[in-house]
UniProtKB/TrEMBL annotation:
The keyword Metal-binding does not apply. SUPFAM superfamilies: Periplasmic binding protein-like II, Winged helix' DNA-binding domain. Pfam families: HTH_1, LysR_substrate. Residues 1-59 form the HTH lysR-type domain. This is LysR family transcriptional regulator. One of its GO terms (biological process) is DNA-templated transcription. It comes from the Bacteria. GO terms for molecular function: DNA-binding transcription factor activity; sequence-specific DNA binding. Transmembrane segments: none annotated. Signal peptide: none annotated. Gene3D superfamilies: Periplasmic binding protein-like II, Winged helix-like DNA-binding domain superfamily/Winged helix DNA-binding domain. Keywords: DNA-binding, Transcription, Transcription regulation.
Length: 301
């Protein structure tokens, strides 16, 4: 690209909004900054800055260009970081927060025992992701959203969901038959909702033909993790994703009085197309093996 140096100087000046400050950052003179900005303005045929004494501000065209130089230099930095880290045996993984905390982290030591030469670095995030821009190798997600980027989508496991609560809470709303729902006091139910899965109860109740449960009381939480913790603490009954509650079911901290049904979604891994990195392959294979155990035996079809 022509005038790449001028674009770098423009980007720094646009961020600083002061040619003197930009000159200091780039170890150039004020005159050199002004000259390169003039070169770029002649190249695009439009003024990019308005001068106000020692300070400058971007014109509307300058703001447009600055938006794209920000993207360009950010992407370039990601590339530089990848080159620097190419000799390191590390995988940068983005994973949904609740799945990270309640399922992946407790099991990750197993992968590290099998592959001591591979370092898995976790970051928590949900929804759409730009792997290159964010600097991630892989993203583990529940496939309940549209993805803008064209990535390979690797299936991990079908998701099963169902209402979960503490045994003590279930006794309070179904006192006569603790493990059945025939004497359930529907009006006494407190349904726990999360804003991140706002339709979870409605979808489950419709699919399981249990819409009468929606007549209970309702309490909302900002995050799925808080919702499940509230269920463990006996504050109500929540819709649980099986991988996220399996350990608590095994410990007896939670029960699933209605069993589990398919959510019609899967847990998946997104990765760049046509990449066959051996470290990524090893980690994805391990995820698939571990998650293959995350299908309930008492599901309702």
């Amino acid at each position: 690209m022509r005038h790449l140096k001028a674009f770098q100087i423009f980007h720094t000046a646009a961020t600083s909004k002061n040619f003197t400050e930009a000159a200091t950052k780039l170890c150039l003179t004020h005159g050199a900054i002004s000259k390169q900005i003039k070169v770029l303005e002649d190249y695009v045929g439009k003024p990019l800055f308005v001068r106000h004494g020692r300070h400058v501000s971007l014109t509307s065209d300058g703001e447009t260009l600055a938006h794209y130089t920000q993207d360009a230099f950010s992407t370039l930095q990601v590339g530089i970081d990848k080159v620097i880290m190419s000799s390191h045996t590390a995988i940068d993984v983005s994973c949904e927060p609740t799945l990270t905390m309640r399922w992946l982290m407790p099991r990750l030591v197993n992968f590290q025992d099998q592959h001591p030469d591979i370092d898995v670095r976790l970051s928590t995030a949900g929804g759409s992701v730009n792997l290159q821009r964010a600097g991630f190798s892989l993203a583990i997600r529940r496939d309940d959203f549209a993805l803008d980027q064209d990535y390979d989508k690797v299936h991990l496991v079908e998701e099963w969901v169902g209402p979960v609560c503490s045994p003590e809470y279930w006794q309070t709303i179904c006192p006569n038959e603790a493990n059945e729902n025939t004497s359930l006091h529907t009006a006494a139910l407190r349904l726990l909702h999360t804003h991140t899965r706002a339709t979870a109860w409605q979808t489950w109740a419709t699919d399981a033909k249990q819409t009468v449960l929606l007549d209970g009381q309702h309490r909302h939480f900002d995050h799925f993790y808080f919702c499940l913790q509230a269920a463990i603490d006996g504050l109500g009954i929540a819709i649980g994703s099986y991988p996220l509650v399996k350990d608590d079911l095994a410990r007896g901290a939670l029960i699933a009085p209605f069993g589990f049904i398919s959510s019609h979604h899967d847990y998946v891994v997104y990765k760049e197309r046509h990449t066959d990195d051996s470290q990524h392959t090893a980690f994805i294979s391990w995820l698939q093996q571990q998650l293959s155990q995350m299908i309930p035996t008492d599901n309702i079809n």
